[in-house]
Amino acid sequence: MSHDAITSLLKESRKFEPPAEFARKARISSREAYDALYRESLDNPESFWRRETKDLVFRTPWTETLEWNLPHAKWFLGATLNITESCLDRHLSTPVRNKAAIIWEGEYGETRTLTYAQLHRETLLLADALAKLGVEKGDRVAIYMGMVPEVAVAMLACARLGAVHTVIFGGFAADAIRDRVHDSQAKVVITQDGGYRRGNVLELKSTVDKALAQPQAKSVQKTIVLRHLGDKCPVQMTEGRDVWWHDIVDPNGHATREATIVDAEHPLFILYTSGSTGKPKGVLHTTAGYLAGVHVTSKYVFDLQDDDVYWCTADVGWVTGHSYIVYGPLSNGATCLMYEGAPNFPDWGRFWRLIERHRVTILYTAPTAIRAFMRQGDEWPKKSDLSSLRLLGSVGEPINPEAWIWYHQNIGGGRCPVVDTWWQTETGAILMTTVPGASASKPGSTGLPMFGVVPDVVTKEGQSVGANQGGMLVLRKPWPSMMRTVWGDDERFRRTYFSDVEGCYFTGDGARRDEDGYFWVVGRIDDVLNVAGHRIGTAEIESTLVSHPAVAEAAAVGRPDDLKGQALVVFVSLRPGFTAGDALANELGNHVGKEIGKFAKPDNIRFADSLPKTRSGKIMRRLLKDVAAGRETTGDTSTLEDLSVLAKLRTSDE
Ligand code: PRX
Fold it and tell me: Which domains does the chain have, with CATH numbers?
């Protein structure tokens, strides 16, 4: 996206002050209080982080706050801990012991509640079983499950042993599982027979079987299978490899598994995310810094109070689920609602009935969902009593002001602050937002930096640009929950994040900062798309397409989409002997669905004789983006190899 485009986007001037009633009870209740904390976090990080992490459990306190050897940060040096003691054990001696940690609702409406004591017990029992299967500190365990409480148990059980979990979103296909298992060299896979999604059965175990049948996945020694659907989803168990969860976890057993105490920088999890090359990268997060980041942001951004019922609608397979369903809320002793299924099952009133039924006070969801609800009309939320809500959050993509206002009015009844939280898989925790009792929000702006975070908008040369000028969004200082490296590829870590702008972490996003210091993020400016809040690398789509025998060349680009933010459009040229048409387009779409996952299927496949290239052979994506969006091409085409190619692409559209 060009600087001009960034600058011209979003000329929004509405401003919403924190409601007085909200601010009165809030943890941070004035702009002055936020400013003072922010200043302290930069001027005296030692005192800031010591105080703000005092509720967490460190077996040995840290001696040094930060060691920064760009691009490598080490936080809280000398500390030892186990993250599960902060999320579970520490609550057992307080009234939180009997408080609900997870309230779960299945797609068909059944519910289960796990108190903190029960979640602790389940975690220790599974940890014990994993240890008996040979899982040790540092081993990788892949988790491929749906939204059931046991997915949190599985993550926590790994952490209990100092094992590194890598959760693979349940929408990924077998080949994507295979690649992640291979890259992380996972020893164990934890899965479930199946889960419900929009009334359909998602066969998770059989997808794992397909992945593990491939030689690249041979690191896996054991598969643990949770029975969730039972007769509705029969599975085949492979002798010697597969074990049932209920056969290895004894419900009457003694939950005494001691926590494995690890160093502050011990790896906690790997989460794969799309980047600008064909291969997803394993974002590595470590223990103490990540915990500090998610603990502090959960507490202040969601203003968590004892009686809150907090609902983050993300899937645990993405970073939002890790940080704001599991580690952040649990480390604060919060009650989280977890919902198994689709927002529109059996109808578009489902979310609102969930809120009414469980008296949800905080809702954290994504703009794509908000826009989809908005499209269905105001009648749906009106059918339910949403008066329990007191705070709304948004994450994952830029929220357009119209959707923000609709959310604020129709869901929040005009009384709930809206926190638009900007962050990434790589950042681990929320880095920008408006702290709800303290700072006014502006629809479409992601607000101000969180504690210890120094964002800036710069030119390619690293010069800060003036107010309301567009540029690259960078982070000038390290923060505790930042990723530490790309698993197994430190060079890629340096190249991807620290080579564009000297001395800074480059986010891949374009942004501007307004005259009040508020940030407005407009989206990715690298080759990553954000389709319905899912991160999709264009190179990944392209390499998948060219792996199909019919495809000679492919280029994937985004086009603006009212609902999904961006839609995925691919241009393909074919090998001789193949004929363009709906049948082949369908086949190619299914090919992407099979290789990556259904969520990555292109919205539109366009056939072309050849793709427009520069004289040096680079595909001219900017032009393709214009064609995809139906815009006139205004850019420089002087280096275009063959102008007629562009003309043909246009006519094929008409
Ligand atoms: O482009 C930004 C967008 O999502 C990207 C990060 O995607 P992912 O790692 O999948 O994490 C999503 C959940 C944290 C960012 O580079 N993004 C995320 N939140 C916002 C956003 N864009 C605008 N406003 C946001 N609040």
Answer: 528-653 (3.30.300.30)
